[in-house]
Design goal:
The protein is α/β, with parallel strands linked by helices. It contains 14 helices and ten strands. The strands form three sheets. It has a six-stranded parallel beta sheet with strand order 1-8-5-4-2-3, sandwiched between helices. It has a two-stranded antiparallel sheet with strand order 6-7. Strand 4, helix 5 and strand 5 form a beta-alpha-beta unit. The chain binds nicotinamide-adenine-dinucleotide (NAD) and zinc ion. Nicotinamide-adenine-dinucleotide binds next to helix 2, helix 5, helix 6 and strand 7.
Length: 349
């Protein structure tokens, strides 16, 4: 047990039952996939409860879906002593938490992450919210759940593409905080990775950073490595193309670009850059973004919530295993980094 009350659990049903003991009203939020694959693993051990199902996917992380959740709680007569269990990936965690934190000015909620991304990242840190008018996580708040129950066993049914996407954050945690761990990861191909171990490591890294800086004034920005360019790539693919990328897939591209900038600033060596780039390409493949993409991606970088005024705030690598926050990058640097990525399959670096 720790300040964020993260429970690494082998028996999520039993652990939830214990946590829910104190409540008379319990609701479990699922989507159709977590209802099918995750809910059966805990259901029989839970006290009597309401199960609220919403449609899966980022496109449903909206105010309209919040309406469905609030309606379900209202119709069931939920009062402020009720509790909401968010059983799912980052969408369920962010949106369910947001709904709970605002329902009747706030009821308790418990996060049960079921994707690698949410176990390693989204489920920890108290950022809650929804997308609004096409802007990601535009409306939301900071609030920690009363507990986070992390059970690696849920990963057994997760589609491989989702697993790979979450892996990007695991890799990020090595690169910004633990070079030993990064070296351990990069010696193994994707199929041989030890997920239980990675989940524990990522939980530890993220928890330490979030505890030190809950509201993202300083150290927490370390977690943004790969995200300044990565987010812009993610939005570009979502808005302007029929082939969106998963979050981690975009972040992998962002990490290559931002490692490249770290190299041009002489923070990391050419060998480091080669290792990072080589490994990320091996795991995630190469996505051609196309020459037309650049203006939109650069434009997207200005949308970042972390910016101040017109400056593009990024987190780079000071060295492998240590991030460097509050590095301001210029448009031309971003362009050069995207060019570097685009050319990767033809350059043998
Ligand atoms: N709050 C934060 O700090 C934070 C950090 C990073 C990302 N996020 C948010 O997280 C979201 C992405 O999270 P995600 O990648 O978990 O996406 P997700 O919640 O959409 O889950 C991905 C897919 O996997 C399915 N699924 C979930 N668990 C499963 C399981 N065990 N077996 C089979 N299928 C399963 C879901 O139904 C969904 O179709 C984004 O909205 C992003 O903004 C939040
Ligand atoms: Zn991320």
């Amino acid at each position: 047990v720790n300040s964020l009350n993260i429970i690494l659990s082998n028996e999520p049903g039993a652990d939830l039952a214990r946590l829910l003991n104190a409540y008379t009203q319990v609701a479990v939020l699922v989507d159709e996939n977590t209802r099918l694959h995750c809910y059966p693993l805990v259901k029989d051990l839970l006290p009597p409860h309401l199960c609220v199902e919403i449609s899966s996917g980022e496109i449903h992380k909206t105010l309209a879906t919040c309406g469905q959740i609030w309606d379900a709680l209202t119709e069931a007569g939920f009062d402020r002593k009720g509790v909401l269990v968010n059983l799912g990936g980052g969408v369920i965690g962010d949106m369910g938490g947001f709904c709970a934190a605002t329902y009747k000015r706030g009821i308790n909620f418990i996060t049960v992450p079921t994707t690698l991304l949410s176990m390693a990242d989204a489920g920890i840190g108290g950022k809650l919210g929804i997308d609004y008018q096409g802007l990601k996580n535009h409306i939301g708040l900071f609030q920690h759940p009363s507990a986070i129950v992390v059970h690696e066993g849920f990963l057994a049914t997760l589609p491989e593409r989702e697993l790979r996407s979450g892996f990007a954050e695991v890799i990020k945690h090595g690169l910004i905080a633990d070079d030993y761990y990064w070296n351990l990861i990069r010696e193994q191909e994707f199929a041989k990775q030890q997920w239980a171990k990675h989940v524990k490591h990522s939980v530890r890294v993220k928890q330490a950073i979030v505890t030190a800086d809950p509201q993202e004034h300083g150290e927490r920005k370390l977690l943004n490595f790969g995200h300044t360019i990565g987010h812009a790539v993610e939005s570009y693919r979502l808005i302007h193309t029929p082939s969106p990328l998963l979050h981690g897939e975009a972040i992998a591209i962002g990490m290559i670009c931002e490692s490249y900038i770290s190299y041009t600033r002489k923070y990391i060596s050419k060998t480091d850059l080669k290792q990072i780039t080589g490994y990320l390409l091996k795991v995630f493949g190469k996505e051609s973004l196309g020459a037309d993409a650049q203006p939109a991606i650069i434009q997207g970088m200005y949308q970042d919530k972390k910016n101040q005024g017109n400056k593009i705030n990024a987190t780079l690598l000071e060295k492998v295993g240590r991030g460097k926050i509050d590095e301001y990058i210029s448009e031309s640097e971003a362009r050069e980094a995207l060019d570097f990525y685009e050319a990767l399959d033809i350059i043998s670096f």
